Amino acid sequence: MSLSKKLSVDDLSFAGKRVLMRVDYNVPINKNGDVEDPRRIEATLPTINHVLKQGAKSVVLISHLGRPDGQVMPKYSLRCCVPVLEKLLGRKVEFVSDCVGPDVVKVTANPATGSVFLLENLRFHVEEEGKGVDAAGNTVKADTAAVKKFRQDLSGLGDVFVFDAFAAAHRAHSSVVGISLPQRACGYLMKKELDYFAKAIEAPARPFLSILGGAKVKDKIQLIENLLNIVDEMIIGGGMAFTFKKVINEMNIGNSLFDSEGAKIVKDLVKKATEKKVKLHFPIDFATAQEFAEDAVAGTAEESTGISDGWMGLDCGPKTMMLNNDVIKRAKTIVWNGPLGVFEFPQFSKGTKSAMDAVVEASKHGCVTIIGGGDTASAAEKFNAVDGVSHVSTGGGASLELLEGKVLPGVEALSNKE
């Protein structure tokens, strides 16, 4: 799947058109029911402003919020996003209390030029995800005919479809794959994501380095398998490094995380790396503790002696940091997925921070640096690195699936350029 050949908003004219736009306003809400962090809303402004500037008749925004599982739950209403959006856009935004039905059609059919509508949560309808939960807590499956009608009704709300919700692109939900408008383009947020991943997956500058952390090997098997086909070097750290160390080096890992399921495939992964001439880098020293706690007494351990029973590795040590930094320094493309230690605890955050600082430095020298979503994005934020790297992905699950070599339903559903 070529990401770079998909239709984008720059390829279309929006004058006089009703633009149906799938965004991701799945924002955190505080106890007062207000938006706590507006960044996901802010991220869609370039696309919304572009289509309005071009003279679009209207922008009809659709999104999900939370997991209401097909039931109407007021705490998951998107109404809370309206004041934030109005302030950011500097214009009125009309909230519509459903996302399909005659009232929605009536309001959006022939609006004044430049109108902006935000429709109610898509997931209040079981037809969005295809399944949900009823009032009694039983799992229910959406009726096939009802799903088809829901998709047709959504499609009828616009003349052109713009998809700008990368974080939802790996979900084969109705608003992601079921819009049947002839032109389905990616917005600027989506385009930025696709462009950066295209650089890494389709034509990386070399050496290409992947940095992989996180807890379990079994969760990253497909990711490692696929990346071994395209990278030159790989740093494996975080909790999953201990499974590798125990299997490959027969190192004593004490009470460190061990993934017995993932351990079964470790030797196969190392063998594939050898065949593909990919250089693997593992930690050689460790910061340890006797308990998983922020205020735990920290100890140290070396590869040669292993980690004593009763102790667990929570970060890499200073020698590993130096080795990692040398590897990062020579890379021309870096993709990072998963922290290298328990970065949430200050005394076990040094390995992740050291690597993050090195990645920022590499970016200054022209290296393309991509941070996967989720915990790695949180680490980039914590260490003030967001503006210092090429790209921090907005989609944890979506970016992971792209790097695993999977076809994202939301990307596949976009129109190709003529």
Tags for this model:
418 residues; alpha/beta; Rossmann fold; 6-stranded parallel β-sheet; 16 helices; 35% helix
What can you see in these coordinates?
With 418 residues, the chain is α/β, with parallel strands linked by helices. The protein has 2 domains: 3-189, Rossmann fold (3-Layer(aba) Sandwich); 196-403, Phosphoglycerate kinase, N-terminal domain (Rossmann fold, 3-Layer(aba) Sandwich). Helices cover 35% and strands 17% of the residues. It contains 16 helices and 17 strands. The protein has helices at 39-42, 45-53, 81-89, 102-109, 126-129, 144-155, 174-177, 188-201, 221-227, 240-249, 260-275, 318-330, 350-364, 375-382, 396-403, 409-412; strands at residues 18-22, 58-62, 94-96, 115-119, 131-133, 139-141, 160-163, 184-186, 208-212, 233-236, 279-281, 285-289, 298-302, 312-316, 333-337, 368-371, 391-392. Helix 10 (240-249) packs across helix 11 (260-275) and helix 12 (318-330) packs parallel to helix 13.
Spatial arrangement of strands, main beta sheet: 3-4-2-1-7-8
Question: What helical percentage do the residues reach?
Answer: 25-40%
Indicate the radius of gyration in whole angstroms. 23 Å
**What fold name stands as the CATH topology of the largest domain?**
Rossmann fold
**Oligomeric state of shown chains:** single chain
Quantity of strands, as a count: 17
Please report the number of helical segments.
16
CATH arch. level architecture of the largest domain: 3-Layer(aba) Sandwich
General form: elongated
Strand proportion? 15-25%
Structural class: alpha/beta
> Low-confidence runs (pLDDT<50, min 5 residues)?
none
How many independent structural domains?
2
Largest sheet: 6 strands, parallel
Average predicted local confidence, pLDDT: 95
Please, what is the CATH homologous superfamily of the largest domain? Phosphoglycerate kinase, N-terminal domain
The CATH class of the largest domain is Alpha Beta
Distance between the termini: 16 Å
Catalytic activity: (2R)-3-phosphoglycerate + ATP = (2R)-3-phospho-glyceroyl phosphate + ADP
Cofactor: Mg(2+)
Keywords: ATP-binding, Glycolysis, Kinase, Magnesium, Metal-binding, Nucleotide-binding, Transferase
Family: Belongs to the phosphoglycerate kinase family.
